[in-house]
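Researcher: Before we compare anything, I want clean individual predictions. No alignment, no superposition, just each chain on its own. First chain goes here; please echo the sequence and then give the structure tokens.
Model: Echoing the first chain and its structure:
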Amino acid sequence: MKILFISHSFPPIIGGVENQNFQLSKALGKSAEIRIIKNTRGKIWLPIFIPLTFFKAFFLMTQYDVCLLGSGILAPLGSTLKFFHPKKKFFCVTHALDIIFAEKKGWLSKIYKIINIPALKKMDKLFMVGNATIEEAVKLGIPKNKCKFIPNGINKNELREKHNRKELSKIFGKNVKDKKVILRLGRFVPHKGTSWFIENVMPELPKNVVMLAAGGRVARNTAGDKDDFLNSEKAILKNKLENRVKLFPAIPQADLKILLNTVDLVVSPNLHIPGSMEGFGINAIEAGVCERIVLASNIEGLLDAIKDGKNGTLVENEDVNAWVEAIEKIINTDTSILKKRSQKVGEYVEKNYAWEKIAQRYLKEMKK
């Protein structure tokens, strides 16, 4: 199969969609002939990237069997190309924000709903990263039979490494050798639940439990989710947790790998926030492949990422007592038992979410 892959956001830009597009295109390239048209300059380049890509893809599609778009932002480009190449097949990887952005307030969301949602309907197939995203898409009138759930993948070799608590202590800023360390990965946005967790759960945990929260911040006036970093800072100060909770709004990849391979527990305490949602929960399987114990809210895309009892434990969202009980149960479990459980988590994630296997699922659907 000859695939023309178009990505509106690609490394070296850092982010979930960017990494997903990179890993997917790399894995597809092992079983198919693929050419990538990619934007590596960020959102500011999109007004130039999209028209230039149209003219390039207009001619290239005569040589390719299918066109795969990296996100719903490119749906209008895909539907226009499909008009000129009706015998070719057009597919789109569809993330949560590609759907729910149409329901947000503001003029930009209204334009998106008018233009992008109808364009998505014209695609031959939409590869949704979560079942919750499919549910939201159907509400907007996208036929369910056009949607196919395929989870995000993971590359163990790029994340799992050997590190020690001394390195972790250096990042935290003090010795955590005798501490129980919780990690929260993900952007500082309301639906990730970071500020809620700091405000409500951390004060109820034993004093030897500390926390690191790492992820990007949302720039001011950016379309989409609001920034929640300041609320997290306020929660720390209000509850006098300065010595127990550290925030990292910009962390190097090297330090991120140290965290993923040394902490005791990873949490995803997501909340229900109108107009936002977790499409999949990639951080949960990143932690899993590094053999970390994971606790996650039992909502939205986390239900696709976490299989209760296999690669993590699902906890009732926004239930403080449930979260405290689940965490204390883990930190009080014998270390040798936790180590065996962690190894099984890593094996499960590698078996079910390796990018090579996920890419084959894409190819199977496109061949249909």
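Researcher: Okay. Second chain, same rules.
Model: Second chain and its structure:
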Amino acid sequence: MGGGTPTYPTVAQLGRFLDAFTRKVDLSAFRQFSFEAEPASITGAEGLEKLKLLASYGVDRISLGVQSFDDHVLKAMGRIHTGEEAVDAVRQIRRAGIGSISIDLIYGYQDQSVADWIHTLETALASGVDAWHLYRLRIQRHGDVQGKVLGRYKDQRDRFPGLDDVRLMKAVGFVFSLENDRDQHFTRIFSRDRSHVTQYMWDYCCDIKDVIGLGISSWANHWRTFTLNVGGNFDRYRDLVTQGRLPVDRGLVRDAETDARRSLISPLKNDSVHKARFTARTGMDAAAHRAAEVRAKTPPTRCPVGDASIKGDSFPARASSDPSWCPPLPDLASTLWPVRPGIQPDRQFIGTIRTSQPVLSSHPSGERR
């Protein structure tokens, strides 16, 4: 159950929804029942009652939109919760008996320093959450609507961290996570183990399964067809559903070549390509297709091809010391690949750290990595 924020409704409204949903959907085969939440909506007595209600209907994972534990950064983001409320929300989830907690964190935001980011990471660790998603601030729109952050960036650029500090934040997040037993399973998700990662991401990004979205602003990816629902027009959404029609506003159909490219690159970027699944979906040989799609971007001898899969590790722990590791296709939001201290970067890797000397000299060696 994803965003907006499905924990905003009252206890009675949530109960009505969950009762209707679980009567219509068979949950017996669910691998995971995950709910997104906003910290301020689950604090206090009513918040705890909501969480206990969710647990009683089988919810076993909460994705919490924390973003930061620093109040001045949260204020710049326009968030309604405080850092203390976010920590309390984590405690509330544990009290309710929900066993898996993942939080979203953003770096590179207005008024955020490297020290602020380190404090947020340390607070996340101390809270005991099982996983965190580390997102770099996206300033340009990714979708239909441009956020207000672009205007602020243009007018007050000096209040945003520079590129060197943003890259340093990403490197710190990577090293901090690994040193505290949070391994990376996707390009930006770090968790105790795979069970705490959203199953939706495994289904959509790695196994290339169909995704059917129910809700006014949701989307669906069914075979080669991608569709978006009607968005902000609730009356139209209701009318279409009442008529027995799909509430779809627009979409696209991928041809066979485009679908094969997606079926290779998305799982390779995040985990690995299962060759049998790739062939079943596309009718093509994964290793042969890989040659055309990947060889120009990565050294072809560095991507191990096994009997069952083609592996593409995202920031693997061995990346800087094992010459046989496979650099995956880059995250287009940032092409930084952290390098361990003392290891000379290999320039044929994609986007090794290139931090300017003034920044390097201004940070103690412990922070430099």
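Researcher: What stands out in the second chain?
Model: The radius of gyration is 22 Å. Additionally, Residues 296-302, 313-369 have pLDDT under 50 and may be disordered.
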